[in-house]
Automatic annotation (TrEMBL):
<feature type="domain" description="Lipocalin-like">
    <location>
        <begin position="41"/>
        <end position="117"/>
    </location>
</feature>
<dbReference type="InterPro" id="IPR024311">
    <property type="entry name" value="Lipocalin-like"/>
</dbReference>
<dbReference type="Pfam" id="PF13648">
    <property type="entry name" value="Lipocalin_4"/>
</dbReference>
<protein>
    <recommendedName>
        <fullName>Lipocalin-like domain-containing protein</fullName>
    </recommendedName>
</protein>
Length: 131
């Protein structure tokens, strides 16, 4: 987990088209390439997990959307369940000076170069590749 993970736009499109094919019988293979693919990757989310630099006993994360001057970042803390199947991410609220309520994600798949998360209460998977 202690890595940077980039949202894989094309893998998520493929996953969505496969579920549409299963449900509706409509087949498609959408791939974003060229300038459109570059733009989609430019604004794609990057998750970075690690230890907090100020308090080594805490695990922190950064969620960054976009790159360069046009990016926006969210910082927070994360924990993993004892069985290693769920992570809870609590974003830091700068205005309130405290953590927001945690959001739970099920780890559907974790390999050396792929992370698949599913937000609690949702059916859509988010596929990330190691950055």
């Amino acid at each position: 987990m202690a890595s940077a993970w980039k949202y894989d736009v094309n893998a998520n499109l493929k996953s969505g088209s496969e579920s549409t094919e299963d449900e509706a019988g409509v087949s498609s293979d959408i791939q974003l390439k060229g300038d459109v693919g570059a733009m989609a990757n430019f604004v794609a989310e990057t998750l970075t997990f690690g230890r907090d630099t100020k308090d080594e006993t805490k695990l922190s994360y950064s969620k960054k959307i976009g790159e360069g001057l046009l990016s926006s970042s969210t910082l927070g803390y994360w924990t993993m369940s004892e069985d290693g199947k769920t992570i809870s991410m609590a974003a830091w609220d700068n205005k309130a000076g405290k953590e927001k309520a945690p959001v739970n994600y099920t780890i559907v798949e974790l390999t050396d170069d792929k992370l698949v998360l599913m937000k609690e209460g949702e059916d859509t998977k988010k596929i990330y590749k190691k950055k």
